[in-house]
């Protein structure tokens, strides 16, 4: 007799199949028995399989069938042991003797698979036969699932006591055997390519290896499915506690210790350790972990939902008690409803951390789980507010359902002041003006009642807390029709006095200061604050108000004419985060940079960034703020002569509430210039004058936002009304407020129209110098165009041609095709070729180092930043740039031609 031991999947059943096939090929009668855990409690179940076998002659089966029925009846009437003892003689003479007689004339082999699952009655009977094998012409082959060393069952031990029994243990395949099998089934190339992985993933387990090979033949998803099915087959054929341990491992993760697993399945650590050794010997585990990520996934998918939720719950509690709150939260998110108080605290804490790090999807998973677990209304509203904030980062429109629900929480005083103020901002963005106004009214009334509760707020006409005051100032800057009374001097104006903690208070106060600076026309102070705010910004540690503060800070720099600094800030943020931001954050940065590019004359890049902003967040998601990216795109396409694209944007539906916000000014201004390009001067004038009317009524008449006067003056000139145009230009030149060189340059350009021919070059030259210094290429091209015409009118035609050529080159770099055609109608062919040749000659005149440094300077890097990136000193950078300026005949870095951008060094 042979006893074949082996782990699950080691090939025991396959060996018996080979034995059976061989027996049939040499005319040996095979009698097969397959034991199953389901029949372990069925007395004589395995024995009945042995004798109810079609391979036995019918006459023999007829003799033994009555005996088997009698044995099974007696087992039902009395104990198994008594049944075997009382019928021992019948078992021998009436069951085994006919088989022995058959074996005397025809060879017989008895194959019993998985004897560890055999019922006790059949075990006793077969032991009776095994003890007499020395005198019986019969071959028996048993297979048994091998357990950890020393874990032998009584039946196993009794078998090994018999001298006729030979025990063989199957071990996992060696690496060389694995490679041989792969070669035989898939070829030499596959063995060379897949051998190492298959050795690792199978652990030498033949069943797993066969699944890997079969999956490789089929390809696609079958690779994963076959492996997972084979692994589950191994576990389900193992003892029950092994499957339970494997499931606990799949749920808990790779860091589970035997003690952790024992706690999860209510078992003793010794049982768990034996299960781990068994799975390791079977090749399912290595170093206490599954050999393949597919293994854990397959096991996890196989766990019944109720059991999985319970294991996640227990895992969460275990990790929470260890202080691993982040890991506990991951399990709580999968555990269904957990009403223990600590669970809600953990979920809220970890969701907040996820939001601060921009991990929005993870935060949503925890918040949704927290919503299922909370037990009181205040917690529910807090979670709803956080859900709104999280979904806002992905799609503001999707968060609207939460925002509208939260208005009820405010009315019932169930939402904190900070979340309430944030709700106002989000409702206004989503053009829900009436709901926002109602909440603002409640906030103001509650703030006015604070002294009666013993709270002394900062001084102010409304006696509101500092945060509410900051919000009132922000409203005056962004949504002026809703703004309340604002004290003129209560906000700090010195960046050195700013809070340094990047929390709720910092961002809200920063918004108040930036908005107040714009409203009160404190240009230099506002821009210093904007730089300070952006310096504090870390988009991986943001709060909801940080998004608004970032946009406002960038636009403050833009409105103040500090385009290079704004561009540097945007580039720095892009480099640091490299596309890892949420759609809302990326959309905000793209919209700001699009406006920066537009004002610098980089029209193609403005279109690219503006388009990206509307791809990250839909027009509906942008709400009232859509005026910013949409206005940028309309104006950029118009200046490039792409009027079909501009028309498509102008005809898009926008919310009416947008025109009651600062963002609407950008849209009106851009649409006015589109109407000018379409020769609809009356409509254009209407948009420009609407800008002026709104900005005056709101106290935001800053030309840095939109220079409406000079644009309206152009429209008046096209209608032949020089008086109205001149009045607006003079108003622009004499308007009080912070110095704005760009708006002054635009006014000087138009003032030249009303000046004598001799004065025009001076006015236009001054305007061109201002625009060149500020890097406003498109407006520079227009001004140079007028300057060329002025010289031509004065008879200085050679100088006029030089300036017009220069104007064409600047317009060409901006890709402002209508302006190019206006300047040089025939420049598209030979002139364009000459321009390319001139460009090549200019670049060729520079050394590699000069080209590299000039390219970085054009992209907006400071001398110090260039020095740090190239590992040279700032003075070396300055020396190289000086030589570049001399070779290119330009005054400064702002005058460097744009085609140097990206030149290889």
From TrEMBL:
Q: Which InterPro entries match?
A: AAA_16, P-loop_NTPase, Sig_transdc_resp-reg_C-effctor, TPR-like_helical_dom_sf, Tscrpt_reg_LuxR_C, WH-like_DNA-bd_sf, WH_DNA-bd_sf
The record, for SMART domains, names:
HTH_LUXR (SM00421)
- Which part of the chain is the HTH luxR-type domain? 839-904
Q: Which Pfam families match?
A: AAA_16 (PF13191), GerE (PF00196)
Q: Which UniProt keywords apply?
A: ATP-binding, Nucleotide-binding
Q: Identify the SUPFAM superfamilies for this entry.
A: C-terminal effector domain of the bipartite response regulators, P-loop containing nucleoside triphosphate hydrolases, Winged helix' DNA-binding domain
PROSITE patterns reported in the protein's UniProt record: HTH_LUXR_1 (PS00622), HTH_LUXR_2 (PS50043)
Q: What is this protein called?
A: LuxR family transcriptional regulator
Organism listed in the record = Streptomyces similanensis
């Amino acid at each position: 007799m042979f006893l074949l031991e082996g782990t699950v999947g080691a090939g025991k059943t396959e060996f018996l199949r080979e034995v059976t096939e061989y027996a049939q090929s040499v005319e040996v009668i095979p009698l097969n028995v397959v034991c199953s855990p389901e029949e372990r409690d069925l007395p004589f179940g395995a024995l009945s399989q042995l004798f109810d076998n079609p391979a036995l002659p019918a006459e023999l089966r007829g003799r033994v069938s009555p005996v088997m029925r009698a044995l099974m009846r007696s087992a039902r009437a009395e104990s198994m042991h008594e049944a075997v003892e009382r019928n021992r003689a019948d078992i021998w003479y009436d069951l085994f003797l006919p088989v022995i007689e058959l074996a005397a004339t025809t060879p017989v082999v008895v194959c019993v698979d998985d004897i560890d699952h055999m019922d006790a009655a059949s075990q006793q009977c077969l032991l009776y036969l095994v003890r007499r094998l020395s005198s019986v012409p019969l071959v028996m082959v048993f297979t048994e699932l091998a357990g950890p060393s020393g874990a032998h069952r009584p039946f196993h031990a009794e078998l090994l006591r018999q001298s006729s029994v030979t025990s063989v243990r199957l071990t996992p395949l060696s690496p060389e055997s694995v490679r041989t099998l792969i070669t035989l089934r898939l070829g030499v190339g596959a063995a060379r390519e897949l051998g190492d992985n298959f050795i690792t993933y199978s652990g030498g387990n033949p069943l797993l290896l066969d699944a890997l090979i079969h999956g490789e033949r089929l390809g696609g998803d079958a690779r994963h499915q076959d492996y997972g099915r084979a692994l589950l087959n191994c576990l389900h054929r193992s003892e029950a506690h092994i499957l339970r341990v494997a499931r606990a491992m799949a749920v808990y993760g790779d860091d589970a210790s035997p003690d952790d697993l024992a706690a999860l399945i209510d078992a003793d650590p010794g049982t768990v350790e034996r299960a781990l050794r068994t799975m390791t010997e079977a090749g399912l585990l290595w170093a206490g972990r599954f050999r393949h990520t597919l293994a854990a996934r397959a096991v996890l998918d196989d766990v019944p939902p109720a059991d999985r939720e319970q294991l996640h719950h227990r895992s969460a509690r275990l990790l929470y008690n260890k202080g691993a709150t982040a890991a506990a939260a991951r399990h709580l998110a999968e555990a269904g409803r957990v009403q223990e108080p600590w669970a809600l605290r953990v979920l809220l804490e970890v969701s907040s951390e996820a939001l601060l790090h921009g991990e929005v999807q993870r935060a949503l998973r925890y918040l949704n789980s927290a919503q299922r677990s909370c037990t009181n209304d205040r917690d529910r509203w807090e979670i709803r507010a956080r859900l709104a904030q999280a979904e806002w980062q992905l799609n503001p429109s999707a968060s609207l359902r939460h925002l509208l629900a939260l208005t009820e929480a405010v009315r019932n005083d169930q939402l904190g002041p900070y979340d309430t103020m944030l709700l106002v901002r989000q409702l206004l963005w989503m053009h829900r003006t009436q709901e926002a106004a109602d909440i603002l009214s409640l906030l103001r009334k509650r703030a006015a009642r604070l002294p009666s509760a013993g709270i002394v707020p900062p001084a102010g006409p409304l006696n509101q807390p500092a945060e509410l005051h900051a919000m009132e100032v922000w409203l005056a800057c962004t949504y002026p029709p809703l703004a309340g009374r604002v004290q003129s001097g209560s906000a700090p104006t010195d960046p050195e006095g700013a809070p340094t903690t990047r929390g709720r208070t910092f961002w809200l106060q920063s918004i108040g200061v930036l908005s107040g600076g714009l409203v009160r026309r404190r240009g230099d102070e506002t821009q210093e604050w904007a730089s300070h705010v952006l310096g504090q910004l870390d988009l991986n540690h943001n709060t909801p108000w940080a998004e608004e503060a970032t946009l406002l800070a960038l636009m403050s720099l833009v409105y103040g004419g500090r385009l290079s600094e704004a561009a540097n800030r945007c580039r720095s943020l892009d480099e640091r985060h490299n596309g890892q931001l949420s759609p809302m954050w990326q959309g905000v940065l793209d919209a700001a940079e699009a406006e920066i590019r537009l004002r610098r004359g980089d029209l193609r890049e403005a279109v690219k960034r503006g388009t990206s902003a509307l791809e990250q967040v839909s027009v509906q998601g942008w709400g009232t703020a859509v005026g910013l990216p949409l206005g940028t795109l309309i104006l950029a396409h118009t200046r490039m002569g792409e009027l079909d694209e501009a028309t498509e944007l102008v005809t898009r539906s926008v919310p009416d509430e947008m025109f009651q916000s600062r963002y609407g000014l950008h849209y009106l201004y851009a649409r006015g210039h589109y109407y000018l390009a379409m020769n609809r001067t009356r409509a254009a004038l209407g948009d420009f004058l609407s800008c002026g009317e709104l900005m005056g009524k709101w106290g935001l008449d800053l030309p840095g936002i939109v220079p409406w006067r000079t644009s309206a003056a152009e429209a008046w000139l096209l209608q032949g009304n020089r008086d109205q145009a001149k009045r607006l230009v003079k108003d622009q030149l004499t308007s009080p407020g912070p110095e704005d060189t760009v708006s002054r340059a635009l006014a000087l350009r138009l003032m030249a129209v009303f000046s004598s021919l001799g004065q025009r070059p001076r006015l236009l030259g001054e305007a061109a110098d201002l625009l060149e210094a500020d890097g406003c290429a498109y407006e520079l091209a227009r001004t140079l165009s007028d300057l060329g015409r002025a010289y031509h009118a004065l008879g200085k035609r050679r100088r006029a041609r030089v300036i017009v050529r220069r104007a064409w080159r600047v317009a060409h770099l901006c890709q402002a095709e209508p302006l190019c055609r206006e300047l040089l109608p025939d420049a598209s062919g030979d002139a364009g070729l000459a321009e390319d040749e001139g460009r090549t000659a200019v670049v060729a005149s520079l050394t590699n180092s000069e080209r590299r440094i000039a390219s970085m300077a054009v992209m907006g890097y400071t001398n110090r930043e260039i020095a740090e990136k190239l590992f040279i000193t700032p003075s070396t950078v300055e020396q190289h740039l000086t030589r570049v300026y001399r070779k290119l005949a330009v005054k400064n870095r702002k005058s460097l031609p744009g085609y140097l951008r990206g030149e290889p060094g």
